[in-house]
Design brief:
The protein is an alpha/beta fold. It has helices at residues 16-30, 44-54, 80-85, 96-101, 106-119, 131-135, 139-150, 180-198, 200-205, 219-223, 240-247, and strands at residues 5-9, 37-41, 59-63, 90-93, 122-127, 163-166, 207-211, 230-233. Strands 1-2-3-4-5-6-7-8 form an eight-stranded parallel barrel, surrounded by five helices. Helix 1 packs parallel to helix 2 (44-54). The structure holds 2-phosphoglycolic acid.
């Protein structure tokens, strides 16, 4: 069975103080025995402050990006080992905002994935189509192409550490969610691609999150889909009550 994984992508929000307050509120409301893995991905500047609060709790720490080199003269970048050092277990890679605004390519995503895995981090690899691509009937080809290109030279054994997040670009931050049926269809297509690459056992074990305007009022029907194994949540992860309701989906 795939353990559901709900991750909060805080994007470029929250000061250190606000991040600490949000984590405290999440811990107060989380409870135990819910059978879900929970991850928060604050901005880099808050990781160090948030980490001690999370040790030994049911919430894992993640980052939103990394650079693929181990160290060096790369002004402004953060190395995989630095994220491990500060207590991260997960890292989001290839978010559509990074592909769109920071010109990240599939090849770059693949480099970052390898670097994350080499450092012992679990990558959350994001894929997703734009609105024009969906309207042109290309969504599945685009998304499965991103999956294949992002995972070049990643071994079957390494796939145990990889989470995939399907996030249609037109659903991110728009309030416009994919229907559960459309999301399920894409998740199944991704799983088929994983099956072609790694065989059925691996395909059945990899967790595929849905992302894009996930909210308390749509999480239940999304999670009821057989191939949706969790959510990557942006806006609704910035407030404790809405994120907790999502974590505690029915
Ligand atoms: P959203 O963002 O939930 O605000 O749509 C999701 C994401 O970008 O990961």
């Amino acid at each position: 069975m795939r353990t559901p994984i709900i991750a909060g992508n805080w994007k470029m929000y929250k000061t250190v103080g606000e991040a600490v307050d949000l984590v405290k509120a999440l811990l107060a409301g989380l409870g135990s025995g819910h059978g879900r893995e929970v991850v928060v991905c604050p901005p880099f500047t808050a990781l160090y402050a948030v980490r001690p609060l999370l040790v030994g709790t049911g919430i894992a720490l993640g980052a939103q990006n990394l650079y693929h080199e181990r160290e060096g003269a790369f002004t402004g970048e953060i190395a995989p080992g630095m994220l491990v050092d500060v207590g991260c277990r997960y890292v989001i890679i290839g978010h559509s905002e990074r592909r769109q605004y920071f010109t990240e390519t599939d090849a770059g995503v693949n480099r970052k994935l390898k670097a994350a895995l080499a450092a012992g981090l679990r990558p959350i690899m994001c894929v997703g189509e734009s609105k024009p691509q969906r309207d042109a009937g290309e969504a599945e080809a685009i998304v499965t192409g991103q999956v294949g290109a992002g995972l070049v030279d990643i071994s079957a054994a390494q796939m145990a550490e990889v989470v995939i997040a399907y996030e249609p670009i037109w659903a991110i931050g728009t309030g416009d969610t994919a229907t559960p049926a459309d999301a399920q269809a894409m998740h199944l297509a991704i799983r088929h691609t994983l099956g072609d690459m790694y065989g059925d056992a691996v395909a059945q074990s990899v967790r595929i999150q849905y992302g894009g305007s996930v909210k308390p009022d749509n999480i239940d029907e999304l999670m009821a889909q057989p191939d949706i194994d969790g959510a990557l949540v942006g806006g609704a992860s910035l407030k404790a009550d809405s994120f907790l309701r999502i974590v505690h989906y029915q």
